[in-house]
Specification:
The protein has helices spanning 3-13, 15-26, 38-51, 123-143, 167-172, 225-245, 305-322, 346-359, 374-379, 406-423, and strands at residues 55-60, 74-81, 84-94, 113-114, 117-119, 148-156, 183-186, 194-199, 201-210, 262-270, 290-299, 327-336, 339-340, 364-368, 386-388, 403-405. It is of the alpha/beta class. It folds into two domains: 3-199 and 338-423, Aminopeptidase; 201-336, Alpha-Beta Plaits (2-Layer Sandwich). Strands 1-2-6-3-7-15 form a six-stranded mixed sheet. Strands 10-11-9-12 form a four-stranded antiparallel sheet, covered by helices on one side. Strands 4-5-16 form a three-stranded antiparallel sheet. It starts with a helix and ends with a helix. The model has no long low-confidence stretch (mean pLDDT 96). It binds zinc ion. Zinc ion is lined by residues 94, 125-126, 159, 188. InterPro entries: ArgE/DapE (IPR010182), Bact_exopeptidase_dim_dom (IPR036264), Peptidase_M20 (IPR002933), Peptidase_M20_dimer (IPR011650), Peptidase_M20A (IPR050072). It holds the Pfam family M20_dimer. This is Acetylornithine deacetylase/succinyl-diaminopimelate desuccinylase family protein. Its cofactor is Zn(2+); Co(2+).
Length: 427
């Protein structure tokens, strides 16, 4: 039996371990916000990986958004050096999960197994992927104890809220520098036969229109900021949305609707603040003097961020030219440039070959409509040889009754294991 076959059998034989590990991870509720139990899950991973011969570091991203003594931003980085020098393959998974929401028929933190699937918040996004990468690495080390190079596994905070207390912080500390790490696989749930090369760009901004407060019975004595914002929206419908729909990318973004530029209006707030749900009083009559809109603009690799901003300013200037007393401000909230790894990159080639060997088919290459931690590895870590690959169905992420299929996890662990075999030298 050749070594690849031996490794495939070794991974299949660890199926029960993979299930238990995924359940254990789901049972630590790492809700973000606010960022609960990060230390608990890092300690759990630490114990597990130390047992498997990894050297571990617990790193708190002090001073990053959300970090406090009550909700410290803990991260774990584990490294296992081989018998000689060589490349390092790093598996990065985020440990946080999003809120539960309504509509569950199972316990969101129970890890219940039903019909070959493990259920729970974070099952697919992405504790199943984290567990699969651990099993792949442990099985690889058992089968190839004399390997050269290194394997790293990290569990990082806050991906769901931008990754500043997680991968961004670690990248700033040099954990993803090209001297330390050469290949990165992020086991996000992109489906087991797809390789995700990157993501679209993001420009988040807040637009504010200004008015003048007055008594609501005499609106002519004031100036309504909400009506000004209405004019902005009308102009967006007339010129901006059609323009965005006309821009198409050559990036293989999935789903198809995201192959164009998009803009979401996340929120609009104008006038009096909303009161608590149990407040029984009536509103006061006022003309709103401020209205704020948060926009989430997703853009393509063919677009320039300056051009993206200019389009929004064009809308505002068009309205300003036609409307009396129209005043506005724009504040940037966040910007992320689009990123896409070349198909010829070693980690892409290696995972593609592994998918072929395990599943007998060619992978589908995709680009994510939203961003994930690859942005920090690319921009701060300056490491381009990075993909997202992992088990789980993308559409289930953040939904009620989220689950991950056990067979899918095993197969995707086999793909990760074969990639290790391909990327790291055996002696
Ligand atoms: Zn995720």
């Amino acid at each position: 039996m050749d070594i690849a076959e031996k490794l495939m059998l070794e991974i299949s034989a660890r199926r029960d371990d993979l299930v238990t590990l995924t359940q254990d991870l789901i049972r630590i509720p790492t809700l973000n916000p606010p960022g609960e139990n990060y230390r608990e899950i890092c300690d759990f991973l630490d114990r597990r990986l130390v047992r498997s011969g990894f050297h571990t570091e617990l790193i708190r991203a002090e001073g990053t958004p959300g970090d406090s003594d009550r909700y410290p931003r803990w991260n774990l980085v584990a490294r296992r050096d081989g018998a000689g020098p060589g490349d390092c393959v790093h598996f990065n998974s985020h440990i946080d999960v999003v809120e539960v929401g309504r509509g569950w028929t199972t316990d969101p933190f129970g890890g219940e197994v039903r019909d070959g699937k493990i259920h729970g918040r974070g099952a697919c996004d992405m504790k199943g992927g984290l567990a699969a990468s651990i099993i792949a690495a442990e099985a690889f080390i058992a089968v190839c104890p004399g390997f050269h190079g290194a394997i790293e596994i990290s569990g990082t905070a806050d991906e769901e809220s931008g990754g500043f207390g997680g991968v961004a912080y670690l990248a700033e500390q040099g954990f993803f520098s090209p001297e330390r790490v050469q290949h990165v696989i992020i086991p996000e749930p992109l489906n087991k036969d797809r390789i995700c090369l990157g993501h679209r760009g993001v420009w988040w901004a807040e637009i504010e229109t200004h008015g003048e407060i007055a008594h609501g019975s005499m609106p002519f004595l004031g100036d309504c900021a909400v009506r000004h914002m209405g004019a902005v929206m009308t102009e967006m419908e007339a010129s901006l949305f059609p323009l965005l729909a006309s821009k198409r990318t050559t990036m293989p973004v999935v789903p198809d609707g995201a192959k164009q530029s998009t803009l979401n209006i996340n929120s609009i707030h104008g006038g009096e603040a909303e009161q608590e749900a149990d407040y029984t009083g009536l509103p006061s009559p006022c003309v709103p003097d401020s209205c704020r809109m948060v926009i989430d603009r997703r853009f393509l690799i063919e677009e320039d961020i300056d051009e993206v901003q200019e389009e929004v300013f064009n809308v505002l200037e068009t309205v300003a030219a036609r409307r009396e007393n129209f005043h506005y401000d724009v504040r940037e909230i966040q910007r992320v440039l689009p990123t896409m790894t070349e198909k010829s990159a070693p980690v892409v080639q290696s995972v593609a070959k592994a998918i072929g060997a395990v599943m007998g088919k060619d992978p589908q290459y995709v680009v994510s409509p939203g961003t994930y931690d690859q942005k920090h590895i690319d921009r701060i870590g300056k490491l381009k040889n990075c993909i997202a690959y992992g088990p789980g169905i993308l559409d289930l992420a953040h939904k009620p009754d989220e689950y991950v299929g056990i067979d899918d996890m095993v197969e995707s662990a086999q793909v990760m294991g074969r990639s290790l075999l391909d990327l790291l030298d055996q002696v």
